From TrEMBL:
Name listed for the protein in its UniProt record: Sporulation protein YqfC
Signal peptide (residue range): none
NCBIfam families from the UniProt entry: spore_yqfC (TIGR02856)
One Pfam family it belongs to: YabP
InterPro entries the record matches: Spore_YabP/YqfC, Spore_YqfC, YabP_sf
Length: 95
């Protein structure tokens, strides 16, 4: 019996979400990252904070990490599944 790779499994879940007309973030558990210019980042569906300084914030997600670099970075607030980061955002990377 053939085992599905994680990529095939993700594609199958993606197609199922589309067919069921359900939001992909709910079905796939992927993060939603919303940038407001270079001054604010909203992150939803994260798992935890790995590193937090005023120039670097690393966030754990289901599929890896999100690395945010900049100046005067601050986590304005966070809940179990959402956070707002403010400051001068220079880069957002998916690792």
């Amino acid at each position: 019996m053939k085992r599905e790779s994680s990529q095939e499994n993700g594609t199958l879940k993606n197609r199922m979400a589309e067919a069921a007309n359900m939001p992909k973030d709910v079905v796939l558990g992927v993060p939603i990252v919303t940038l407001t210019g270079q001054i604010e980042v909203d992150v939803e569906n994260y798992r935890g904070i790995i590193e937090y300084t005023d120039v670097l914030i690393r966030i754990k997600t289901k599929n890896g990490q999100i690395k945010i670099t900049g100046k005067n970075l601050q986590i304005a607030y966070y809940t179990n599944d959402e956070m707002k980061i403010t400051g001068r955002v220079e880069a957002v990377e998916y690792l």
